[in-house]
Amino acid sequence: MGEMPSFQLGVIGALFLSVASSVSIVICNKALMSNLGFPFATTLTSWHLMVTFCTLHAAHRLNLFESKSIDMKPVMLFGILNGVSIGLLNLSLGFNSIGFYQMTKLAIIPFTVLLETLFLKKQFSQKIKLSLSVLLVGVGIASVTDLQLNFVGTILSLLAIITTCVGQILTSTIQKRLNVSSTQLLYQSAPFQAAILFVSGPLVDQFLTRKNVFAYKYSSIVLAFIILSCIISVSVNFSTFMVIGKTSPVTYQVLGHLKTCLVLGFGYTLLHDPFTMRNIIGILVAIFGMGLYSYFCVQENKKKQSVDLSLASQMKDKDSTPILGMQDKETSHDAKKSTKDSLV
């Protein structure tokens, strides 16, 4: 019983860290890219991952966590897949309108549910599906402004959805099957993610922005924001692995849409972005959907725990029955033997 409150506290802490760090880094990056004119998103992500790996390596050297020896082939493929998915998402944003890009992010939840149902045989109740539908409608109202389709952009979006979903499912699966913590998995996979983005990032950014990251003139304030962004990214990457490992890829995506709503709110308050009644209605609907999802998840977890306890109790009773039966039999046998001895 003592493990359950500790586990729930860990989940709440991971969720809070994920939301706080993600909203912080979005605001920091928005200031860096929009206000200071540093548009190299993919290259910046590669720096994030390199700083994350260096931080974890220092923590490992200080014995703050133990590195576990695991098969590097799946970890390497996993790291490369995650790096490719980040690049594809950035390319999708470059080739599509903001509205279509938001629709791409919305499609990740139903596609994740589909993949988990087909390949992992995971069951989602009708209530969970309903709450996810309400959530997606709300986020769609709040964030999707226009839909401009083009063939290349659509293909890139589909590839981004597939790689993102598979990467997040693998994050959960690898942690559970190989029995590694979120820190250990991130430490092992971060170098591969950083390498693929470090090589492809400048090319992707130059293709999208027509600017060269190496020819950019770095001012002191730009460098300060880049350093701040990299520091925050350590928490973002760590909490992402932590949340997916402790909950599920679908819950992580739901959390992602909560971040979207918070970013819209912070953008209006801090950065004075344009805000309409449509945004407000969409955010309220999305929050209602998130509330439903959280409520139904808690109810289903309680029901599952109750069933597990009931099954465990039945198994215990079943295991104890033969022993009692044997004791009764032995008692009866001893009584008969005693009677026989007395007759003799």
TrEMBL record:
Keywords: Membrane, Transmembrane, Transmembrane helix. It is a multi-pass membrane protein. The chain crosses the membrane at residues 46-63, 75-93, 155-173, 185-204, 216-238, 277-296. The keyword Zinc does not apply. Residues 21-294 form the Sugar phosphate transporter domain. It is found in: Membrane. It comes from the Eukaryota. Pfam families: TPT. GO terms for cellular component: membrane. InterPro entries: Sugar_P_trans_dom (IPR004853), TPT_transporter (IPR050186). The keyword Protease does not apply. Residues 327-344 have a biased composition (Basic and acidic residues). Residues 318-344 are annotated as: Disordered. This is Sugar phosphate transporter domain-containing protein. It comes from Populus tomentosa. The lineage of its organism: Eukaryota, Viridiplantae, Streptophyta, Embryophyta, Tracheophyta.
